[in-house]
Each structure stands twice: as C-alpha cells, then as structure tokens.
Amino acid sequence: MKRAFSLKWSFAQYLIVCLVVAGLLCLLTALPCEILRNALGEKYRDYYESDAFLWSYVVDENGNTVGKTRIGITAPDGSAVTLEDYMEPRDRMIYTLLQYYPLLMPLYFAASVAVTSVLFYRRRLKRPLEALDAAAGRIAAGELEFAVEVPGRDELHRLGESFDTMRAALAENSRELWRTLEDSRRMQAAFAHDLRTPLTVLRGYDEFLLKYQGRLSEEKVRGTLETMHASIERLERYTQRMGAAQKLERL
Question: What distances in angstroms separate CA 73 from CA 87, 204, 209, 227, one per listed residue?
Fold first, then answer.
C-alpha cells in the first residue's frame, strides 16, 4: 500500500531545505566579509591608534597614579578621528561597503521563499493540475471512456481519484440512458407493429361495409361488426399498456 503524503508537509520540506541553503549562503557571505574587513582594519590600525589616541594617566583623589587610559583625538572640525580617515580611497570604499553585508541576509531568505514556491509548483503542482484540467475538458466535451491519472500520493492524487470516480459514474449513467432509450425504441416499435394488425382489419372491414352496404345479409353484417369490435378492444388494450409503460419509464 502506497503511503499518502500531505502537500503541507511537502511544502515544509522544500522550505526547510531552501532556508538551510539560505543560512549557508549567509554564513559563506559573513565569514569572508568579516575576514576581509578585519584584515583591512589591521592594516591601518597601528597608524590609527598611534595618531588618534593619547595615553593619559589616571590618578586617585590622593594624587597617586593608579593606571592609564587612552583619550581619542578629535579632528580640527571637532569630529572624532576614525579608522577610515587613515585608509587609502580604494581600501576605504571596500571597508565601508563590507559593513553593509548583513543587508544581504533578508534578501537570501526572501529569495529562498520565492525559490521554494517556484520549485514546489513545478515539481508537485504543475503536472497534477494539468492532468485535472485536461480531464475536466474531456468530461465537458462528453468524452467519458478514459481514466483520470494524476501523479503523486497527496491530496491532488486523491482529488484525481475522485474525478475518475465521477467520470466512471457519468459514463455508467450515459450507458444506462442509452440502454433505456434503446429499450423504449424497441418497445415503441413493438407496439407500432402490434397496432398495424387491428388497424388493417378495421380499415379492410370499413371499406368492405362501405362498398357492399345494402347488399349484405344481416348475419354477414353482424359478423363483420363483431370482428371490428374485437379489433377496437384490442386497440384499447394496447393503448392502456402503452400508458402503463410510459408511467413506468417516468418512475
């Protein structure tokens, strides 16, 4: 027995894989950027620290020296001196750009969701939806002698099985309708055949009476009328049977 899968779980699997890939891309982006940024910083850090800071001794309230600290030197315009001020223009541009690499992280994850959606549609939804659309078109066109086959083992596959059950039911109803119509046609043909005999008898005796009226004996006329009466009763029975058969068809 084939195991059934859920589209929700399948989509979650695709999403997990894409998020893991996005996380790896973030890691592969962050490590080189940090390494390169630190390398550029170390290249100019000695110049920066020697010019941008002064050592100052720290004394307590009794005037004893208890340590020393660094004091940042400000630029002539009053702004603090930064590491970038000591870098060459090319290195400064690279160092500045590298500090914005975290902005790529949301783009990676947004791209992972988009890729997940595209892959999920193309690999799990496209073929089943095309198969269902084609089956619906053939059913609408009155073509019922085929099998609805939807690949997979998920909800769309079960929907395809329901489609096939509906198609089979419609095909059986169509065959039953044709059988009913054919039975009705044969029954009407049989009734029409049976009606011809009494009608032929009535027409023949009617013409006989019209032609030989006044020249027939009373016994001959009476026998002819009895034969016509029997044919009329036969016609009445056929009419009643046809009415009963039509009632049965309506039921």
Answer: 17, 138, 144, 140
232 in Cβ contact with 202 (< 8 Å): yes
User: What is the C-alpha to C-alpha distance for residues 167 and 193, in angstroms, rounded to an integer?
Assistant: 39
- CA dist 42 and 98 (Å) reads 15
- Angle at CA 67, nearest 5°, toward 65 and 69? 125
Contacts of 111 (CB under 8 A, 6+ apart): 22
The 8-class DSSP code of residue 66 comes to: E
Residues 6+ apart with CB under 8 A from 163: 132, 135, 136, 148, 150
- Burial label, 247 (beta-carbon count in 10 A; 0-12, 13-18, 19+): exposed
Q: Which two tokens stand for residue 149?
A: 């086959």
Cα 49 from Cα 82, distance rounded (Å): 10
Q: Give the least confident one: 57-71, 79-93, 175-189, 228-242.
A: 57-71
pTM check: above 0.90:
no
DSSP 93-141: HHHHHHTTGGGHHHHHHHHHHHHHHHHHIIIIIHHHHHHHHHHHHHHHT
- How far the first Cα of the chain sits from its last, in Å, is 43
Summarised one tens digit per residue, pLDDT across range 139-181 is 888 888 888 888 777 788 888 888 888 888 888 888 888 888 8
